[in-house]
Records
---
Amino acid sequence: MPVRLALPEVDAIGPFKRLSASQVNAYTTCPRLWYYEKVRRFKMPQIPVLFVGRAVEEAFCRMLQESPALLMANASPETLSHVPLDPNGVPSRDANAAWPADRLLTLPHEMWPTELEGLRQWAQERLSIHLPVALEAMKLEWEKDERRSGQWSSVNPQRCLDMCLKGLEMHLAEVQRCFDANGGPNLEAWRKGIRPKWPAPDGRSYNLALRHPLAQDGPASWIEAWEISRPWFVDPNAGKFSMNAIHPEHWFQGEYDLVYRWDDSINIVDLKASVGAGDRSGNYVEQLRMYAMLWWVTHDRKETVDKLEIWYLGADAIKQIDVPTLDEMKAMEAELNSLWHQLKGETPTMEDCPPNPSPMRGFSPGGVPAKAPETLRCTTCDWKAVCPGGDGLDSQLKGGSVRLPGSTASYDLTAIEELEPRMTLIAEVFSVTGGGDGQRPRIKVVQDGLFAQVQLLVDTHQDGEPAWPQGLLKGDRVKLDGVVPSANYKGELQLKVDPHAIVVHAGKDEHVEATLLDFRARWNVTGQLVYRFEKKGVGRNGKSWHRKGMMLMDATGSMKVEGWAADWGPQYDLAEVGDTMVAANISLDAWAIDVKGQINRNSKIQITERVERVD
């Protein structure tokens, strides 16, 4: 069972507070690195190679999902893309849902491959069709990313295809093993249409009422070997992070790449679109060992993994990882649980996470251990300019006041952790329009003669409750809990409802002191510049748009400040990482736990202190 979903009725932790292998590896690499990225929410530069790996994996899995008995080699890449999903993005278990492969007629038997080479040629063509689509999708995602870095022209499509083809050969070795084993121990069960709770994604429903449409008689055919040996993987059509394996106590989660299990042994495979010659290869080993522990605990501690492998597609190499023993898994679970309490039970402070990096590790292609480089980890860290382990300083600003050039007024500065982007108040519904047929209604509320539009950006609150009450009527008295107030370009007040806000009917005697007059429209903050970012695009009206932003950090927290490019002024372009900046007269926005500043033409951006730099 490669998937174990959360049980909402007993999950007191939630998806945002679980530990993962990547977080464990980040903390082990350097506690301060983990703190910057998971607490301060710094985002490292997004270079194309990070997206290329995802494109290679998607193309590979879409090829695995398909069958040469159903699709011609030149079929559309969209043929199996319309998999029915539930509201959480998980392939639906609704018995009436329409699955794409169930609606396809099998190809004539004379068109089915009857040898391994036929399977190879079909799969190679499918990869050549899927990869360009996946690369283009990743290119568009990269282009939209505010932290994109590098040039997409550095991506070599042929090299990406070569990695896919190397992965295909590794998979075909499993197909060959399955064929040689006459379909393995589950051939007859597969022929009868018996499927595991989480079958390998093949575009079919979870349950087959009759014999499998591709089943044959006699010895296993090559088509049957292809179908039976297909590993489990995350359905490419499923929602992101929707098919995790979650610890029974909900504090740890992971997502396997491939799980081979056709011969009743469990082999977890980690796909890597790289040569495996860097420090990160050590992280991959630890990740797979954690996945072995996760498989064991999610199977009532009765079933263990038989093999762990890393497929380095860039090196055409398979690295075998030692499976941890029961004692090692018990110790690992206890250590990870202790780490969860340390990192997630209460949010640690920066002082709790010192810049204490682990030594660099050396690996040659294929993840083979080699002599460690003499380079210090801090010299290659994305955050060395602001971290005291690199070129940064331990001391940070915390609010205060400042007088800016060209202004006679003194600006009171608010510490980032003290910013209040939300408010709770009681008001009366003035109007409700629209809604129904899955549409969100437009709600206007009034309080003591002041009006505000309610922006419903979600359907449900983080605790699973509806974001607004059904059947809301004019004159109803409502409590707007945790809404994010803002003023639009017309000066109209808006109250945003995100996953941390909710609209409910107010009790007859319920009272809240806050009023719409308490809305604070402008704030002043200061902090060290961590990085700048830009976003560009074309709107629905065909006009280009351009926004700029920066990440600021003070002694108490960090926040993004962003706005239209024309509103920033020359100080934005003059600023360098590590400089102390003031952003005055900005408004606040929020989404879940993230607080964000918004500048406009009346805001003022100023460098107040520059860091020393060596020419």
Note: Residues 1-36+244-389 form a domain with the Lambda Exonuclease; Chain A fold (CATH 3.90.320).
---
Amino acid sequence: MNAPSQIPLPGPLADNPNFDRWLDFSSPGHVTVLTGRVEFGQGVLTAMAQLAADELDIDPSRITVVGGDTALTPNEGYTAGSWSMQAGGVALRQACADARLLFTAQAAAVLNCKADALAVSDGKFLRNGAATGLDYWTLAAAIDLTVTATGAGKRKPVSALKNIGTSMARLDLPGKVFGASAFIHDMTMPGMVHARVVRQPNKSARIGAIDEAAIKRAAKGRIDFVRTGDFLAILGDDETAVDLAAAASGQHVKWQHVELPVAAQQEAAWLLQRPAIDKVIGEPEPADPQGRERFEATYTRGYLAHASISPSCGLALYQDGRLTVWTHCQGVFPLRGALARTLKLDAASITVHHVQGSGCYGHNGADDAAADAAIIAMQKPGTPIRVRWGREEEFVYEPKTPSMVVKVRALVGADGKPSDWTAEIWSATHNGRPGSGNNLLGAYALPEFPPDPPPHDVPEAGGGGGTRNATPLYDIAQTRIIHHLVPETPIRVSSFRGLGAMPNVFALESAIDELAERAGRDPLAYRLSIASNPRVRGVLEKVGAMAKWQAGAPPGTGIGRGIAFAQYKNKAGYAAVVVELEVEEEIRLRHVWCAADAGLVVNPDGTLNQIEGGIIQSASWVMKEQVRFDGEAQNCGIASYDWETYPVLKFSEIPPIDIELINTKDETPLGVGELTAGPTAAAIGNALSHALGTRIRDLPLTRERIMAALLK
């Protein structure tokens, strides 16, 4: 079994080929499944248990799933990009299939029979349907799980799956509902102290003066200070006293070299005036339209905040030369690497454990809160340090999603169909995560910190960042992307749910609607006329049937319907969305329908939750959300710092949502976590255009923009 694999292994398994990084049979009657993916509310650990149960032929109740632990689990990078099932799940299935083959060979050797004479039932080996007295656990001592997988184990055909495809109850919910397991915010440790960091207004700011006495008086309790360079933290046993001191620090810590964002920079159009790194993907644009009509339109989206339900939290302990960190971040191994760079430690001396938080899609403040705790812990050996950010701190300092400008140009034939398509995009990087060589927030305050990497974005092989979903899947002879990567922005930006997919799909599918209107065609019929891909047609036709799509009322009646489609990253799941809304001064959603092709669906209930959640979050982005700047010293120039100044969609504003899954027994799972963000945004934009009789191309679709459009 130590011979090099002759069969290509799925990516994460090729990167982590040893069985002991995936499976542990040491507890009799139970299997511990190890995954590099982490749970942040999407149900991934439950799905992993279902995958393992089917491939190992054991009951799911025998499985415990451990996710995201640098001491135990495989290194699968980030839980992001809708890759958990499409990559991580496939890798786990193959690891389990190979392990089943390994154990079966051992059982055959013990029984002196051929391996194909044996079957497995709930972990027990049967021969001709009769018990043999052998099971995984009696054989475990003779199996060396440090050997590498070969890929020779045959994964179960869809027809043989029992647990995959069923809505198994979520493993993580009982503890969350009944309090049996703590969120990271609830963790306590003996001798733990609370800490808050006094933040730099920007990464170049330096401390000028500190009035420690005034801060201590404001605390109304005992506090201490930790300072290294311009990194200043307040510590204490009483969390309330620490909070009071941190609040007072705004008046009593003076900063130098402060630069704050101003209101003019909050709009995406500001990017058009900035230096950029340019790249063309595809053939150059034709100089001569050759009798074809030109179409051009520009669409924009401002900065967005993650707006996590609870602010970020991190714990750390430095003891006996080892640093241990507890975090709710999405990539424990990348965080370990970033901590090693920042603190000048050997990565082998750092252990990072994932503990669940309130959930977030993308790079919020979780990594930075963990780094805060680690930096302080290095100055206080033997003392557990807990850092919890405040609400305003989260809104002000977490990385935001980049603003974007997307200009669509098309050449249209006499039949009204596009034959040439250009998406020209202005965007900052969507790849500010620490695993890409970027600094953690606290690092900039240290006396020495690693240099930032050269400007870069997510490569096309990874789905792209600013370019994600910019290439249409319709039948268009020539397409290209012109990408202007803007390296400097007034605030820190990074990964957000879907990266550039939402604004790109909003632009693409809005433009398709505009072309349909120019051609005098129904939007659904027009899309079907330029779509030959059967899976594209499948979701479009299905959602049309669900919504009873037909030519609606004339434009401008105040009630509108819109449709949009995308395949996430053009390589994951497919979704088509229809939105019905009404509008006066503001939008009210009346109904949303969605047809999704996610390939092999592991847990239908979990999949539906992901799709529905994506619809709701996208609706909030489109109708309400934008980070705003004011240039004032309070909150470092960020004018949207709480739920009043950064409103999100309310429960009372969520419409009925109907979702149907198709192709659920396909051999391959397709990612769905970010599937509906783009189509929902575009469907709302298209429905609003129909309702108003005029189009708004800038997000969010606020009352102010609607009134301005009506008054034109």
Note: Residues 1-5 have pLDDT under 50 and may be disordered.
